[in-house]
Amino acid sequence: MRMLCRLGVVGRTRRYHGRRCDAWADRRSHRKPRALVELTPTPGGLALVSPYHTHRAGDPLDLVALAEQVQKADEFIRANATNKLTVIAEQIEHLQEQARKVLEDARRDADLHHVACNIVKKPGNIYYLYKRESGQQYFSIISPKEWGTSCPHDFLGAYKLQHDLSWTPYEDIEKQDAKISIVNKLLSQPVALPSSTEPSFQGFNSTESGL
Fold it and tell me: Is the separation of the CB atoms in 41 and 48 below 8 Å?
């Protein structure tokens, strides 16, 4: 009787361990196969004294740790690539917006240069755009303030002709002049290129950066 009980216990134990092995196999089947070093009985042309002790897997938890490390590396690589692609996408969006504005400004500048004008336009001057009853648009050097209440035509806007022959709307003249002034100061300063071609963080100290 005791022998049968023992056999029954052994049978249940084997079934229990069998179910655990099946569950373990199912979990492992969803993981990517881990890359282990190929085994050879004669590394470097020399026969091993005990291939078993050299090739045995050791603690099964080590294999689990290896698989988890590979999986974590895949996750980190994917996250890094996603972050970099996100930055590139934002830069592309910004460049597209800049390209759209460049095209709009170029179209506006071309249209303004084709506006009727009886005087030779000179860079640095402000010109005032009017519209006749006939629909014709024309430039004048007389502002609406100078016309007063006797302005004969509809006032559409004022523009400053820049030295690159682009036009700046009147409301943006002050901001554009400030930008040009900064650029002119930079161009007037002597440029000293460093002799070393290695990257340098000179000038980025804690005081200047506000850290």
Answer: yes
